[in-house]
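Subject: sequence -> structure tokens, single chain

Hey, anyone have a minute? Need the predicted structure for the following. Not urgent.
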Amino acid sequence: MAEEKELRYDPAAIEPKWQERWATDPALYAADPVDGGKPKYYVLEMLPYPSGQLHMGHVRNYSIGDALARHMWMRGYNVLHPMGWDAFGLPAENAAIKNNTPPREWTLSNIAAMKRQMQRLGFGYDWATEVTTCLPDYYKWNQWFFLRMYERGLAYRKKSKVNWCPECATVLANEQVIDGRCWRHEDTIVEQRDLVQWFFRITAYAQELLEGLDKLEGWPEKVRTMQRNWIGRSEGTEVDFFLEEEINQGSGIREQGREKTRIRVFTTRIDTIFGATSVQLAPEHALVKDMAANDAGLAKQVAELLEEQKKAREAGDVGAIEKHGVPTGHFAVNPYNGERIPIWLANYIVADYGTGAIMSVPGHDARDFEFAQKYAIPVRRVIAPVDAAAEEPELPFCSEDGVLVNSGEFSGLTCQEAQERLGQIAKEKGIGEPTVTFRLKDWGVSRQRYWGTPIPMIHCDTDGIVPVPDDQLPVILPEQIAITQQGGSPLGRVPSFVNVTCPKCGQPARRETDTMDTFVDSSWYFYRYTDAKNASAPFDSATAQHWFPIDQYIGGVEHAILHLIYSRFWTKVMRDLGLIVNDEPATRLFTQGMVIKDGAKMSKSKGNVVSPDDMVARYGADATRMYALFAAPPDRDLDWQEDGVAGVSRFLGRVYRLVMKHAGAARTANVGSEAEAAGTSLKLLRKLHQTIAKITQDFEGRWHFNTCVAAIMELVNELTASDAQLASGEVPAPVVRELLTTLVLLIAPFAPYLAAEMWEELGGEGAVHRAPWPKSNPNLAKEDELEIPVQVNGKLVNVIRVPAGSSNDVVQATALADEKVQSRIAGKTVAKVIVVPNKAVNLVVK
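Reply:
Had a minute. Here:
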């Protein structure tokens, strides 16, 4: 009993001991100098918002990155593994309103609390590179980048219809509207408002952002597909229809002889233009206002269509709306054949996509066909199959594999030929041109809230908009102000902030009172990590060039069209500014699965959050982390079960007792020769080297850390089963030393505290996390036998063992001779034997 008590695994004693030691050795997790000769490895988890406490979703994310960082340190890489805080944002501001606590105070206290949690969990971060985005030494460079973009025409101001979240009381970018609702408030419907806002011209990089996705082979295809769809490139032609008659402008009829009003449409199928039987406008199209100016009935119908669109946005998708339209009583002229066709308003056409106008070709477009059927608009065939003898397909016939019919002089051309010819004519005659459009819109970055980076612009009555000079940066966010959610930025009610002297003319002027979208902060933070204390530049270019691109980035798929697309844009801007040379921020991206409890994603709103503090107090940090890696493959959702953490804790206790029991003999032994091993020693060494090979392969490839932990468990089972031989000396001390020290090295990325304790007890040199990763001996790792499952009609009957390298005939014969298999197939006919080499045997019997 005394010995058992002495060997009891007590994480509450072991883990704080090592946490304290690591805190006194800041170089342990710091990157080496960039000119040290080691290959570099930059591993990064997405930085958190400092909400006040970590949840198990954080723990899972950071455990994945930490295991990888520790493995790469042990592999001899110079590893950069930083952490920081995405510290601006609305939650801090809302907390200030609710609790009467200044956002800075609330945020910094939360950062301190979460940092303590991370340190207690044993994450190996280099805290010397810590970045906090709400501090002036960081957001100064947000402002500096804004000015550089303004100089290049990439930051601009315009009046626009914007997304307004009434809960946040601020504007949202298009990417922050999910199914018609705010990305922060799932139940809050986003409204449309007309406001003057600042934008970043992300569309200037739309094509490059799209093309770059093909090079990101280390990113999940799901993320790349989401970005492709969001960028939404369409090739086609813009072409002008003409308004047949002049319309009342409110100030009189247009004078005769002036150029006719053009209605520009965008189409990807100009080859079908002879099949256009109407032109349809968005209710917000500029021409509609003129049409409805003296037509009260039409004006009422326009208002109804706009309301339908609003409701459709609330439901999430205007494109899925039940299609409804209104005839305007006006007509357009087709520029290719002079045909007069009616102009309609349609609720499924939006003003900010394309030109806000379409030519409707119901014979060759399913959406147009549905609309035409509803309103008895003519349907005309202008595309037929290439094979003239083929039966004419039903309309709508949407294929581009056809030839033109009923299209005047262009009849007989293939669709491709017609698209090229008709587009060329549009350009020659000045009625349009081939063009490319994108679904992606410019990034609206103005926010009417306080807790964000002040936009470094000044409004002067004499000189207009004037940039703040670089030598006046940062524009400091005032700390003591009254914060409410009433209209407009709270900064607008702070005279000491607003009132300023124009740097150009010296006259009184006003500061911009909007702050920047907080996604600005996270668009470049990982560059700042490489040179976090630089006071004269965002970072040193040579240092960033050494570390970039990020070798492995880890975070949630929910950021696919938010942070991840913004950071790619920012990287390209910095490249064009000459700060960096890389085109993309990260070579590889890993998106971890969610943590699920009681059938739902863990969240405060659902009341199902599990505190890692509670788990650490009960079972220790190592068990909490290892469970997060063991319970499911990291790319799959994890169904939280506290019993699982308890089970991992018991396993770590077994490892501790095994190592500590035999540590005395192992500590004093020399490393033995594998050639001396025989019997039990050889069997255990074979299992050890197979485990090394398995875990090394998983780190290099598929990242199934759950199978890594399972492999360690299998090894421990074999070692425990051979405990008597280890104790008796049957297994020589040098072999025991190799078995135990290697076991500790294998477990180190997953349970760092326990590994450090056992490494010290075994007399290991230096820190276990800087010890070399073990290498597998291929001769020892080679399987001497294979376990082959045998199925009968798809149901498992038994598992047979055959010598490694056995032929399919030997495997089949062994399976058929097995007693359990014989019992199952007795009296039946074996119709077929399927042997999957080295994997399985399936018997098909009748």
